[in-house]
């Protein structure tokens, strides 16, 4: 739209003459609506010159004949403006009256009424055009991260800053009117592991990955970054479940479940478990364990030997299945583990729905399970604790009440 003001001048020279004399192709009248122009707090019209053919496009805030070098060239079409408590939302054309003239907020003509449906594209200005545009400002709100930890202690980040529960630990700027919640921890805290970011302090509503729009009430949007004490690997996805099972042999590994996960996949049976699992009350479901074909003398189970460093708490494995194929015998087969070492601990570790299938030639024997009706010792075998052999599943579960098997099925 071409806005022509009969008496509009730049200094003492009419606009058309400036365009002709100095090679400016067009002019833009812009209003900051109470912004800063070059550190001057003043609401006023500024003339800007655009020269077509420049890289991207260039805006000049002073008369072209008075420029020296590129010192006053401003690229990307946005002059440098600062505000105390507001930030630039964008540039918009003025709202027009029925005659195509810009509408001002009052008779002083110091501020435009902006048409927010017409954002400015500086690259589309044509020779001879005169634009009226305004800078729209919004509250300088941020996405604010608050710390969530268990307990009343203070913690220290990698830069030496200390925080207490509930403190603001990070603020994220809004970009293009939106801000996305980080999927990684906003800071690193010594001795703690980032778990997740939530919309509420009760950690019921997930926030990681959410995109928030800038509010209009001027208040920061608050999310809560949860950290747990210790060095943990957080298990949040199917891939992370697979990684956990593949690394349970390591005594240095600690795994923390963040939510229920339907695995719907397979993993190889284990020879031993040395790691720590904190299930946090969650369930991993639909797990199939696979085993190599067994030969004479083999002793097989899903978890192998539960070593002295093994700690499994508040975890449910639901709908677990395994098939052992036997080529020569005799062999020993146990559903859960073949041994437990002193020091291993279990608290509310439940296997809900265990199906063990043994495929073998009729002449091959499974020493601890002569037939499908012999179920005295098919879950836990060869268990030695406190120097004492525990001969049956019932005796094992009495000694380790924190390890529970429900709805077990044996097929031979």
Describe the structure.
With 412 residues, the protein is mostly beta strands. The chain folds into three domains: 9-138, no CATH class; 143-229, no CATH class; 233-411, no CATH class. It has helices at 15-22, 238-246, 393-399; strands at 9-10, 13-14, 26-31, 36-37, 40-41, 46-50, 58-60, 73-75, 86-94, 114-119, 130-139, 143-148, 155-156, 162-163, 168-172, 178-180, 192-198, 211-213, 221-229, 233-235, 254-257, 261-268, 272-273, 276-290, 299-300, 305-306, 311-325, 332-333, 339-340, 345-359, 383-385, 388-390, 403-411. The protein has a seven-stranded mixed β-sheet with strand order 8-7-6-3-11-9-10, with no helix packed on it. Strands 20, 21, 22, 24, 27, 30 and 33 form a seven-stranded parallel β-sheet that branches. The longest helix is centred in the middle third of the chain and has 9 residues, at 238-246.
Estimate the mean pLDDT confidence. Answer: 81
Number of helices: 3
- Based on secondary structure, the structural category is mainly beta
Helical residues, percent: under 10%
Any low-confidence stretches, pLDDT <50, length ≥5? 1-25, 34-80
Give me a quick take on this structure:
This protein has 412 residues and is mainly beta. The chain has helices at 15-22, 238-246, 393-399, and strands at 9-10, 13-14, 26-31, 36-37, 40-41, 46-50, 58-60, 73-75, 86-94, 114-119, 130-139, 143-148, 155-156, 162-163, 168-172, 178-180, 192-198, 211-213, 221-229, 233-235, 254-257, 261-268, 272-273, 276-290, 299-300, 305-306, 311-325, 332-333, 339-340, 345-359, 383-385, 388-390, 403-411. It has three domains: 9-138, no CATH class; 143-229, no CATH class; 233-411, no CATH class.
